[in-house]
């Protein structure tokens, strides 16, 4: 027997759980949580434990593919792939300019952290600004909210010190966002300290079941509820005056703007009880060290920026920011040391600083380039038209308005996709780059530091934890696979372009240049990504379980006497939008009528990550069910497991209904990232349902980012016609 035990971190979501992998004759056979590793207490989810079956998937690509004239694919060697791509990029740039080459960066880089760095540098080197990501169809309010409100230099209060955590439209037990290290354990520890958990979610989620208070509102009413909480804090003397006087402007204007949002008004509008809203406000007022996090729920339901902004205002009104002498959340370990001070960072431009897109009205924001513009940038002829796209993501399943996505991807001269299998999106590509799977790639935790540095407070570590370790497996025998970064390096090499290391949106200013003669290995790239790190990378590599590096622990320092920055509680654009909320007829806005009587909401399953290649057999149902309240099912005459037709004003899909007693009535919860489209005949029982047939870029979009309505979406649900009747 050649059984070997190896240690690494799981990279199937951003939680990065430490795991122990059993390797039998060069194949991974078993994964369990590494109980001896710090912070996680051995936690893993079923996706982590199923990693061997993802690596061993029979349909894994063993070599890259090239599309033929007739639409079929033939294998292509890495060598030829690089040569052909370099030539085609050269021709496109010569003919159409650098802007014709675009890239989309998403979940794939969790497994391949060097990819984002080199992709960004590649675009910079050819002179193209066309770098897109999922940020503007995710939670753009996270970064834009900080621009509008200002940021707290000292950061958030660490979970282990909180006496309250309020999560609005997020489900960390499944998603890990906000509590990435064993979320259940973190919640229980907080409650043991008598800390309170408040959940606002139309569904009684796995997280809501652990909460002290759960508000179960009508989807899309988060701005109303958050404004109602501000109203109560102001009215009932719940504002931390000392904190606000020293650190913020605009309290009077904000107070006036929320006048309309009385508990009675909010309760009637959001479909909750005024007493429950009072209870939440009271808990906020009693807490000294709380935090409020916004998940994807409010963001997808339109007005995500306003919800994010109001959540930041609530944190400031309560002084829920790390104070002098407290330990800092998200200290750097693999990035250069940074300091934390108990003082504001003034607001900065949220828009108006970049060039508007060629088509439509969107523009760059702190959330990056607006994805909303990309399909039209591809489809609209003229100078600057996008002709080539490097895609790290499952666009066909994850981008709004599926039809338009397919139309745009088909219209490209060159679509290059990185993938493990021939996914629905890969089927549209000219070249599919067969990539190594995670155990075949060295692991490093730096990505989460980059993400938290950029203003996303949902990932990373409140302790100075880091991990870096070698690849555990060789790629399958006879395969010819690449790591995602290698394609950018090798194509750049052929085009004589210099590349450097740029850690996306992190504050890092050290940008080492790559040797373009001799290809580095992945570990050497990691060394460069961690240039100037607080703890030397080799020191981190010595700890095969991951480690908490005490030397990197940071305390929040005192305010700089020269600091004059103030947080803004009364951003003019946000207060204008709040006035619109107060003025409108919520029924009209919601778009419910006798035909479209349900609201569709997003919600992640524990055992699937976005469009990631799924482990065979991992899902309880092999598809993503459309969850409904059992009484709603009875009313329309369907039973669990029945096929239903879901229609929105933009499209229709078939789905399989499933009951969930924890859902609010008239709400349907359906996860994205499924469906085998482009084929409309796709069987929802086999491949699941692609929810983005129901969304449209034109539907109630945010004017700067272009993010459309992806939640609180009016739909009709009817039993699917039975064949032959
Ligand atoms: N209707 C609706 N749409 C949504 C959402 C929603 O809630 N509702 N959520 C949105 C959100 S928040 C996000 S972040 C996006 C996510 O959706 P995407 O932006 O598409 O990103 P991922 O699904 O994370 O990307 C995973 C894909 O990357 C590719 N890939 C490239 N390299 C690798 C690799 O090394 N390993 C693996 N495993 N895959 C690789 C594979 O095709 C894989 O399927 O979807 C968005 N779309
Ligand atoms: N298992 C798993 N983990 C993941 C992912 C995954 O696909 N699977 N994806 C990763 C990604 S890309 C992201 S962005 C994060 C997202 O992390 P989360 O935001 O925590 O994602 P969800 O678990 O979908 O939680 C969203 C919640 O919002 C609720 N909701 C829906 N509409 C509304 C509304 O109008 N108002 C309110 N208040 N709530 C609403 C839903 O019922 C759901 O419980 O998760 C990450 N982690
Ligand atoms: S939560 Fe699951 S998928 Fe995410 S890192 Fe941990 S084991 Fe992997
Ligand atoms: Mo996301």
UniProtKB/TrEMBL annotation:
InterPro entries, per database record: Asp_de-COase-like_dom_sf (IPR009010), MoPterin_dinucl-bd_dom (IPR006657), Mopterin_OxRdtase (IPR006656), Mopterin_OxRdtase_4Fe-4S_dom (IPR006963), Prok_Mopterin_Oxidored (IPR050612)
Keyword line: Iron, Iron-sulfur, Metal-binding
Record domain 4Fe-4S Mo/W bis-MGD-type: where: 3-59
GO molecular function, one term: iron-sulfur cluster binding
Gene3D superfamilies membership: 2.40.40.20, 3.40.50.740, ADC-like domains, Dimethylsulfoxide Reductase, domain 2
Taxonomic superkingdom: Bacteria
UniProt keyword Iron present: yes
Keyword Coiled coil (UniProt): no
Family: Belongs to the prokaryotic molybdopterin-containing oxidoreductase family.
Protein's UniProt name: 4Fe-4S Mo/W bis-MGD-type domain-containing protein
Organism: Novosphingobium malaysiense
